[in-house]
Amino acid sequence: MPRAFGAGWNSTNTASTTVPQGHLVGAATHIVRLYEVNTGSDATADNAAEYGITRTTSRGGTSGYTSVPAGAASLDSTGVSASFLDYGWTTGLPAITSATNYMLSWGQHQRATYRWVAYDYTKMLQTVPAAGAGLALLSVTVSATFNAVYHFSWEE
Amino acid sequence: MADEGHIIIVNPDADLARYADAEHVRRPHGVIWVNGQEVAQTLQCCHCGGHFVPRKGSRTRRGFCMKCEAVTCGSADCVECRPWVAEFGQNFGREF
Question: CA dist A124 to B7, B20, B72, Å?
Answer without folding.
Answer: 26, 25, 15
